[in-house]
Amino acid sequence: MTAVTLGILRERAPGERRVAATPETVRKFIARGARVLIEPDAGASAGFVDAAYAEAGAETLAAGDILAACDMLLSVQPPPDEALDLLKPGAAIVGLLAPQASDTRAARIRERGLVAFPLERLPRTTRAQSMDVLSSQAGMAGYKAVLIAATLAPRFFPMLTTAAGTIRPAKVLVIGAGVAGLQAIATAKRLGAQVEGFDVRPETREQIESLGGRFLDLGVSAAGEGGYARALSDEERAEQQKRLGAHLGSVDVVVCTAAVPGRPAPKIVTQDMVAGMKPGSVIVDLPAESGGNCEATVPGETRDVGGVTVAGPLALASMGALQASEMYARNVLNFVSLFVDKGELAFDWSDELLARTVWPERETAAASAAA
């Protein structure tokens, strides 16, 4: 019996330095009976050299040869459309694929009968935690966002006592208390800042306070399903903006982290709020790739808006590519281990993690969800 063949290509997306498999996970895939093919320099930008992959048992081949031979392609970002055209009909793909964000990508997946597993669709359950790429990558993004803010801010973060007098700590507000926001709070606190956290989900108060932050209560509560916030009513949004706008005048740094996968980021910080902030203040908008939480954000740019520095960094997790790749690759290994063992590829569609992650959604899974 021929062993299932897994392929890993060098990521093509601009600014993407991560890789979908590391020498550690390659070794574990091979222990499960798989054959692993990898493109030269696939992991170089993340600090993983070809020799390490070869030592782990991977075979190095050109991209075209890998696509023609593999039964499953592992990726971080969606593969280029031309790569999808070269895959075997019925091959599987695992990664952050966002199929509905591109009509041509979606069409190719359907036309070629590819079994796509967009990991952003993975259910947020206890059993899936070890496979949760959104959480692992958000942690790195939250950490890097605060480091960017500290670099851009024209001040120290910690309180300092100097011969020139005492310097007060920077006042940092983190908007959104998901994984990225909580990491941002923890990082800003470690840097010595005075930290506040805001989220419309009341259950986050305890999490924010456990990290040493102060919960900013704006009088709006909007807990939703799946751990995410629900959409605010017009009245709730108006109340939130009124109170937040009044508060931002006393803040030195704002780190925005509110996002829901697959949807545009909610607009929370308006142009008027930015205009009301002190000159020298800084806003770092972590979800800039999905539009950002701040109306003044331009994705990929750092700009001066009336004396306030507004940064919309892209590919934040890639800025910590080595450890982001290690976490991502372990997540992928744990997910793929659900259906690859003893060299065989076998999908159990009664497993909700597979059935709810696969795209297009299978009829059996859709019928089960409707029931």
As residue ranges, the low-confidence spans are: 365-371
- Helix percent reads 25-40%
Order of helices and strands: EHEHEHEHEHEHEEEHEHEHEHEEEHEEHH
Radius of gyration, CA atoms, in whole angstroms: 22 Å
Count of distinct strands: 17
* Number of separate domains: 2
**Shape verdict:** elongated
Strands of the biggest beta sheet: in what spatial order? 11-10-9-12-13-15-14
CATH fold group of the largest domain: Rossmann fold
Q: What is the C-level CATH assignment of the largest domain?
A: Alpha Beta
The chain-level mean pLDDT equals 93
Structural class: alpha/beta
Strand content range: 15-25%
Count of individual helical segments? 13
Distance between the termini: 39 Å
CATH-defined superfamily of the largest domain: NAD(P)-binding Rossmann-like Domain
CATH architecture of the largest domain: 3-Layer(aba) Sandwich
Major sheet:
7 strands, mixed
